[in-house]
Design a protein that fits this description.
3 domains; mainly alpha; hpI Integrase, Chain A; 403 residues
Length: 403
């Protein structure tokens, strides 16, 4: 820290036009060299000031009068020790003030730089549209249904800054989510949060956390009794029945089922190779006897092909890929499935619920969770637990085993 001679003269209570020269002579008498900034301008460092104070304390008497100058001191020259103590206390107070001012100035500069160029500033400059574009262009891209949801978000709240993400989410729910199921609203929130997280990672800042809604309570039936299962399978149209049997006994996702190719059916090993999966990890599953019989009948009827789609629609053409649907949650067999449910008298059972049904039947048959996880293509046992449950009858029978 640097002081001017005028600042030190003021603390010494020197008066007159030559007070700065008097201070400079005081340093000269004690053999302390000063810093020269330019002609006639001198500066004093903390170390030089400390050396002066120490030298003055060691001197029995410091004559403050300087000949040829108009010098006045508030303290008497007969009390040099008192004057030195006053000077020391005054300079210490001055140094504390200067230190506080310097810290405040530095802090204000850091805050200003943070607001303009730091992570906080980027949060105010970047919009949800910017975050969505960054997420859309990430390696691997997005599924069509996620891109559709992102487009819906961008249309309504794309101009909101990331710093106002929660405000944007509230606005989107107000304008777009009225009448939607809680699970559907949560999917919109999840894709927006994913875009915010990815963009924040790219910008090296902290992503805002969107407020979740209440816990989703979905009490819809997700598995069938054996009687319901038999009735529903028998109610499908002939060309859809092999697809339904594969969903029921193999536990595949609808997209994985409809993309099956004869090249992926290994009769000798009794396996199916699932090349394209939701999580991007191919897997091999064991053919269930019921599925093997259904596929073998199709294979023979098609002339024992070595390649080509396994399942064909009623026009003899491959089913459309659900991933290419503009809207999420689409299924090429949705209409045929609903017709079969109506015939069987089974309400509120969706195409994807066959996967829940398969997981539940596996658990109630005593298959361990790790085998279910690998056959079903889940990444974690937690996901298996979300899909699988057991019937009240099964729980009652299990409790009878406790002796």
């Amino acid at each position: 820290m640097l002081f001017t001679l005028a600042e030190i003269a003021e603390q010494l209570r020197y008066a007159g036009r030559d007070r700065e020269r008097s201070v400079r002579r005081l340093f000269q008498r004690h053999g302390i060299a000063l810093l020269r900034r330019d002609r006639g301008t001198f500066l004093v460092t903390d170390e030089q000031l400390a050396a002066l104070l120490e030298s003055m304390q060691c001197s029995p008497y410091e004559n403050a009068a300087v000949s040829g100058t108009s010098v006045a001191r508030s303290a008497s020259a007969a009390r040099p020790v008192a004057s030195k103590n006053i000077l020391q206390a005054a300079i210490a107070e001055k140094m504390r003030k200067r230190t506080a001012e310097a810290y405040r100035t530095r802090l204000e500069g850091e805050l200003r730089n943070e607001l303009l160029h730091g992570p906080g500033g980027r949060m105010h400059r970047m919009t949800i549209a910017d975050a969505g574009l960054t997420y859309l262009n990430r390696p691997g891209g997005l599924k069509s249904y996620d891109a559709w949801r992102l487009d819906q978000l961008n249309t309504i709240v794309g101009d909101f800054s990331l710093a106002r993400a929660n405000e944007a989410w509230s606005e989107f729910k107000r304008l777009r989510c009225a009448g939607l199921a809680p699970a559907t609203v949560e999917r919109f929130r999840a894709i927006l949060q994913a875009a915010l997280n990815y963009a924040a990672g790219e910008e090296q800042t902290i992503a805002p956390k969107l407020r979740r809604g209440g816990r989703i309570q979905n009490k819809r039936m997700r598995f069938l009794s054996k009687d319901q299962e038999t009735r529903l399978l028998a109610s499908y149209a002939a060309h859809v029945m092999p697809v339904a049997e594969t969903l029921c006994w193999q536990g595949l996702r609808i997209g994985e089922t409809l993309r099956l190719d004869w090249r992926n059916v290994n009769w000798a090993a009794n396996t199916l190779f699932i090349a394209e999966t939701k999580n991007g990890e191919p897997r091999t599953v064991t053919l269930h006897p019921r599925v093997r019989a259904a596929l073998h009948k199709l294979w023979v009827g098609a002339g024992s092909p070595t390649e080509g789609c396994v399942f064909l629609n009623r026009f003899g053409r491959p089913y459309a890929d659900p991933r290419q649907y503009k809207l999420p949650g689409g299924s090429p067999i949705r209409s045929a499935h609903q017709t079969a449910c109506d015939r069987a008298g089974i309400p509120e059972f969706h195409v994807h619920d066959w996967r829940h049904h398969w997981a539940c039947q596996c658990v109630m048959s005593g298959i361990d969770l790790e085998t279910i996880r690998q056959e079903g293509g889940w990444k974690s046992l937690r996901m298996v637990e979300r899909y699988a449950t057991v019937s009240a009858e099964h729980r009652a029978q299990a409790m009878k085993k406790l002796k």
